[in-house]
Amino acid sequence: MSERELTHLEVPCFVDFSEALAGREVVAQGVGPDLDLWLVALDGKRDDRMSFTPGGASFAKSHADAPQSYEVLRYPSPDAEPESILLPPERLNFHFVQPLPDGDLLLAGARCAYVDKDAHARNAVVYSRQGVARRELTLGDGIQDIQATGDGRLWVSYFDEGVLGNRGWGRGDIDSEPIGRSGLVQFDATGRRLSEFDPRAAGTDIIIDCYALNVASDDETWLYFYTDFPLVRLRDGAKPVTWKTPVAGASAMAVGATHVLFGGSYSARSQFELYVLHGRREKTLASAGTFVFVDPEGERWQPTWMRGRGPWLYGGEGTRAFRIDLDTLVASARVWH
């Protein structure tokens, strides 16, 4: 698609966290069920990759060589000062953060080694608001995303290594069967498995890699996954609903009653595609516009991370983050088309 065919939409900065970071690196981002933005800042140099040969491939490390110091920052609104939660030094590398009921916080790492049937490595920690570790959980290897519900349930999606197995998982015996074998698992706040994705009920192929997750409410969850990239809606007590999509490789989505917005794709990482949710019998999507987001200075947003929560899409690059809702997108599409 040519630049002339794109709709340029001004999207202001939601928060600029450069002052709060003071030169530190953000290692995790998350959006809670209350739509607050959560960040995890690391003091010092990140130690989450290992190299086997000079200039060769590197692999993710679940634990740093030495304890690291983390600060969790919560941004409830653009004008509010961030809430700060300091954590005790911890060797576990964190990639995800989510709020839980009673003021608790979940921090988790993406990687988790299989030890034996009675002793799995722990890759998540629940902290109090005072930074006290309450309990450790095993959520499995190869985590793509984690989103919590308001009542404390955890929806965890997995990429291919978490589904097919690595790091000792998936050796062919029942004991090493990957925790994320279904591609999407629901846990309670203690790490007990509650449910998992059923492709037969959804009428889809199995999940090989869950590219995007959106926990829209306590009883509604959306997912989008490789290989055919269907869009699936899960509702408590209802049959899954599946739409065919023309979008391949999107990394996030915002969803509403009538529209879906995909962020990024294989062919256009910094473009955003809006579709109408069509169909009573055969569920299909109808294009409603393709967007480029620009900041008030006219600079194009090129997010390095994105998260969808209900009708809201969050993204960020550097020390800035934006958010936009579907109502704004739909109104813009009607003006321009």
List its traits.
Neuraminidase, 4 helices, 5-stranded mixed sheet, 337 residues
Question: How would you portray this structure in words?
Answer:
With 337 residues, this protein is mainly β. It has a single domain (3-49, 61-336), classed as TolB, C-terminal domain (Neuraminidase), CATH 2.120.10. It has four helices and 28 strands. Strands 1-25-24-23-22 form a five-stranded mixed β-sheet, covered by helices on one side. Strands 3, 4, 7, 8 and 9 form a five-stranded antiparallel β-sheet that branches. Strands 2-28-27-26 form a four-stranded antiparallel β-sheet. Strand 14 and strand 15 (154-158) form a beta hairpin. The model has no long low-confidence stretch (mean pLDDT 93).
Structure summary:
The protein has 337 residues and is mostly beta strands. The chain has helices spanning 18-21, 160-164, 199-202, 326-336, and strands at residues 7-10, 13-16, 25-31, 37-43, 49-51, 58-60, 63-75, 83-86, 90-92, 96-99, 105-108, 124-127, 133-137, 143-148, 154-158, 184-187, 193-196, 209-217, 220-226, 231-235, 241-243, 252-255, 259-263, 272-278, 284-294, 305-309, 312-317, 320-325. Strand 3 (25-31) and strand 4 form a beta hairpin.
